[in-house]
Amino acid sequence: MDGLIAWLSNVQEDLESSSHTLSNMRFARRDDYAESECRGITYLCLKGSPPQNVMVVGRHFDKYERREGVWGFTHRALCVDWVQLMPRVDAEFDLTGAVEPGKMGPDDPFYSRLELLPGTVKTVGTARGN
């Protein structure tokens, strides 16, 4: 897990923002074992000159087990079905005057606009956001 966190931290340095969506989920279960396939779409706004947007479409193949009554991941495999690079159109389509832009890290509106969801300022360090 430490390796994954370090890798994600390095990747985030090259990003202005990112978004991840999972859909088309299929699950199968037998006793205390389950498997799933789901489609993932990742949008990345890369820093650079010129900045670019990247869309990655792929699938997750996950395995789960129930241990002592709790379900958890035991394995994840990924495949990439396609990748598309797209030029940025920010200068032509700027909504930042009307809508607050998202940001990587603690300056993102998520942290100041909500208080009940785990990870927001008021729930950090509390058991269940109570």
From TrEMBL:
One Pfam family cited in the UniProt record for this chain: SnoaL_4
Residue stretches making up the SnoaL-like domain: 2-76
Record InterPro entries: NTF2-like_dom_sf, SnoaL-like
Name of the protein this chain belongs to: SnoaL-like domain-containing protein
